[in-house]
User: Fold this.
Amino acid sequence: MTLEIERKFLVANHGWKNSVIRSVRIRDGLIANNKGNKARVRIANDVATIALKSRRRGLVGTEFEYAIPYSDAEEMLGIMCDENVLDKVRHFVSCAGAIWQVDVYEGLLDGVALADMKTKN
Assistant:
């Protein structure tokens, strides 16, 4: 279990692109959402995970994340996520001594860019 503090910001311009240190293609699928508690399946490049996230209390939430077989993740995305699958490219951006994550969405949210700097304990 990890505690996660997450704040998201809408990105207003492309100035961050010169500071990208690496990128990963992600497919996210929401399996369940119950009163703010969520189950999510993700494929990031060739790594598949399933995560259970608690509802947030203020900025803090609890997350349990586990590796699963890639083929299972593909099936879950196709069978269990209906239209709740998002495609994005996550860029890791170095800025002022911190690493930010900038997610640039494709498909349903095409062009939306959100930045966050997660803190996990």
